[in-house]
């Protein structure tokens, strides 16, 4: 309901009607709809962790594990779009906490796995900047971004097959982390300066 109607539009009474209870019964377990969303979000993150761990256990080599868990993350999100939306597309204000910070906090065990796996791969494969968290985040941000796009867009007949896009993305990212060194902060400053200048 949160994903379909929007968090603000859903009431506890509507939730109770949807599942066949009175809203008084719902109040006995959840003081407000925020606590329902929090419960759903926590369960979804836990499922994502279980999915990650199960896939990782099947692949002893770090590189294979990285590729497989990247695919697995996207597959989980597209197979459970409503659960994904509840966590990542929810309200900006999460009971007084900004959404980004809230997601980062409850997702810390999952996100920590992502980063550590990338570090394991970087060391095993001898990648440059092997302990650089910016490079690790770049990989996973790209994978999350693709998952988000696929959840929003769904299957579009006129576009390339999603599985092929996933494989191409992983291959492109892998080629990039092997060849492109971590940009220094000075490069970001210069690019930002040029961007501002072009707008003037």
From TrEMBL:
- Can you name one GO molecular function term for this protein? DNA-binding transcription factor activity
UniProt-listed Pfam families: TetR_C_33, TetR_N
Q: Which residues bind DNA?
A: 11-30
The root-end lineage is: Bacteria, Pseudomonadati, Acidobacteriota, Terriglobia, Terriglobales
Q: Which domain of life is it from?
A: Bacteria
Keyword DNA-binding annotated: yes
Q: What is this protein called?
A: TetR/AcrR family transcriptional regulator
Keywords attached to this Swiss-Prot or TrEMBL record, sorted alphabetically, are: DNA-binding, Transcription, Transcription regulation
- Its signal peptide is none
Keyword presence, Ribosomal protein: no
Pinpoint the HTH tetR-type domain residues: 1-48
